[in-house]
Amino acid sequence: MPKYRLTYGTDDEFFAQTAGEVVPMLHDRHVTGGIDNERGFLRRLAMEMCEWNGKNYCFHSRDALAKSMIENGLLEMID
Fold it and tell me: Is the Cβ–Cβ distance between 32 and 41 less than 8 Å?
């Protein structure tokens, strides 16, 4: 199973089948509440990441957001 490193706020490493599995992990550790559905969370997360480093993030699916995170240096496969 691939190992990923997330560098967003803190450095976290996790094992997942796909990079898109970072979304539930981020949802579980997210500080502010109020968004239960995944679509709303993806949108909010993409906006936060845009503010974080000024880059663009697609959020129409888990995999699209993860791909944007990889392209913008927040997520990488390390093993």
Answer: no
